[in-house]
Each structure stands twice: as structure tokens, then as C-alpha cells.
UniProtKB/TrEMBL annotation:
This is Transketolase. Belongs to the transketolase family. InterPro entries: THDP-binding, Transketolase_N. It comes from Maccoyibacter intestinihominis. Residues 8-263 form the Transketolase N-terminal domain. Keywords: Thiamine pyrophosphate.
Amino acid sequence: MNTLELQKQANEIRKGIIAAVHSAKSGHPGGSLSAADIFTYLYFEEMNIDPKNPKMEDRDRFVLSKGHVAPGLYAALAHRGYFPVEDLTTLRHVGSYLQGHPDMKHIPGVDMSSGSLGQGLSAAVGMALAGKMDEKDYRVYALCGDGEIQEGQIWEAAMFAGYRKLDNLVVIVDLNGLQIDGAISEICDPEPLDKKFEAFRFHTITIDGNDFEQIAKAFEEARATKGMPTAIIAKTVKGKGVSFMENAVNWHGVAPNDEQFEIAMQELEKAGEALCQK
């Protein structure tokens, strides 16, 4: 896909996020929207996957370490063809397979269940190590939150990955600057992130995580990096794409009401129309 096509697809994924969270009357729109461009690039450009064969042995693996932004992952999986887009509005409903956090036993395309923050990177590191031991070519991607990386287990996993030179592993940090209680800088500031990952023997790349050209270059650079894992520090806008949600901490884990839903969808419709005119 070219940049314009990726932008269009990301806009559709953002619509899916808003529709899912509104229907559930709960969920996490802010972080899902900030990571929507990363999800889009991974599933429509970067990863070697096959929606018709979700358990393909040599597929690339993805772990959503910040599992509460499941609406973003689900929207990407649905639009990529893993399950019907219409099912997004069953999010968190009784009997739905689309739970509040990803479930690898019931959702096609989910490689690792995730819930408690800080644990997903350890699972991704294990997958990457297994790939090396089995002499497989698949790559492993893990998406972490900037609030989540305050958890110590993240750095234990990073230390192991760097020491074992897992160059088939890419960690993406969604650096939107906000967590549930406020700005990360006022709670437990993780900066400087690049130097921290470098100290754990990672190759680091800092980008605008809502810019597809920068995203593409970063993943290309990560693929070319040998002998060490890569950390992509993606600076993003929380709530990206919906004006009243952007950079607003109160939209971390709140669903829009009917009126807010209509406004958000109208904004995304207009954004989509503008992209179609380019």
C-alpha cells in the first residue's frame, strides 16, 4: 500500500474503534486511536500473515502488551479479514468472542492473550527466542504503552532480549504521553527512553508514530538491523483522529455517549472523504 491507502485504511480502523467502544459502553478509545497507524502498518504492510490461515507456522507474531487497547487490534484484524467487521460492535458483550482483552483461544489472529500490563513483552521475547532456536525466519512485534513500561517486568524482558541478541524482535512504544491518571511526566517519567533501551543493547529509532512515511522507514531500518533487537519509540497523539479526544487524558478509558459518537463518526467520515479527494 502507498501512504494514501494506508491513511484511508487507518481512518476505517479508527471508525471501527469508535463503533466498538460506543457499542460496548466501555473500553479504551484514547490509546487505541493513538496506535491505529501502527496497527495499520503492521497488519497491512509489515507482517507476513495470512488471515485465511491464522496459525500459519512461519507467520510473523504480534503481541499486544498493552492489552486494554484491544479495540484497535480488533479493528485492524477485522479489516484485514480475520473476522467480520460487523462483529466489532459485539465488543465486551455477553457471549461475544471479542473480550475486553485479547484472547488467543477464541479470536482469530491473536497470537498471545494479554491482560495485566507489563507481561506481554516477556511473551514476545520468548517467541523471538523460540524462533532463533528453531532456526525460523519469522519476526516478532510487541506494542507497549508508555505508562505500561513503568512496570519492572518490561525491563527484565528487555535485558534478556538485548543480551540474547534477538534481532527478530521489534518493540514499539506508543509514546502518547498520557496514562490513566494523567501525564506520564507527572507520574513516573520513563524518559529518556532511547538511552534506556540502548543501555539494554537495543537499536533505537524515534519517530512520529502517526506519520506513515516515518513508520515505514523505521520498520525498514529495524528489518536491516542485525545482532540486536530494535525499539521503535513512536511519539503519538492520544485520541488521534477525533478532535475532542486528542490529548485528553479523560478519554483513556471512557466510551462516547450517543451524541459524542455521532460527532466522532462525522469527523472520521469527513477525514475519509478528504483522503479520497487526494
